[in-house]
Amino acid sequence: MTTLALGPSWLDPNFLLNEFGIYGLLIIVFAESGLFFGFFLPGDSLLFTTGLLVTTGTLTTDLWLICTLVCVAAIAGDQVGYLFGKKVGPALFNRPDSRFFKQENVLKAHEFFEKHGPKSLVLARFVPIVRTFTPIIAGVSGMRYRSFITFNVIGGVLWGAGVTLLGAWLGKHGWVRENIELMLIGIVLLSVVPIVVEFLRARRKRGSAVPVATPDPDKTADR
Fold it and tell me: The domain containing residue 20 runs over which residues?
């Protein structure tokens, strides 16, 4: 078992897979994909570790079966998030903060959705926190269901199968197997990069938006 330095031990992917197996994996993928309280779950590192453990023989379930089930769970999670957003509507933006809900996360997902449009459902899959709230925002905004389900399936397959297969492929290399914790930390850091980039971009935009003082015409006339 690794001791993931960037989070509590009970969120360690190896611990979760050892304790709850494939069923736990599917529940976590489902929850993180569309249930607002699932934003803190370790989706990326969990999928990567799953693929790695299949390659090393620690998990004996067929890799392609796991990929299929993960994709179904991810797509179903987004579906629930979309329906939740469509039912709750604008009231979501007035919901008070709580232990498992932060208004800031909703606003970030809303900005992400407004910026990238329907394709945000694919891009958000690879951005922690944002991926949880984006399908909900899609429902709130009244996105056409046909468009939603199309991008939902594409994103679910690319993320669910893609990250799992990446773990399986890299797991064939001895260095990766011997440095699992380092790889997981790297994945967490990489997944945070888009958030940092957006933050810096927004900060720079706010800085450039400082109003420039205009000369007072009366004072100019006095000169």
Answer: 9-203
DSSP conformational letter for 137: H
pLDDT tens, position by position, 147-186: 899 999 999 999 999 999 998 998 887 777 667 667 766 7
The answer to the question of residue 208 being in a domain is no
Residue 151 burial by Cβ neighbours in a 10 Å radius (0-12, 13-18, 19+): buried
Q: What's the total number of domains in the chain? A: 1
| pTM (predicted TM-score) | 0.73
- Assess contact for 2 and 181: CB atoms under 8 A: yes
Q: Is 221 among the domain residues? A: no
**Is 216 among the domain residues?**
no
Cα–Cα distances in angstroms (integers) from residue 148 to residues 81, 135, 141, 152, 166, in the given order = 11, 8, 11, 6, 26
Task: Give helix 43-56 / helix 145-170 axis angle, nearest 10°.
Answer: 40
Per-residue pLDDT for 95 more than 90?
Answer: no
pLDDT tens for 101-159 read 667 766 777 777 777 777 878 888 888 788 888 888 888 877 889 989 999 999 999 99
C-alpha dihedral, 158 to 164 to 168 to 170, nearest 10°: 70
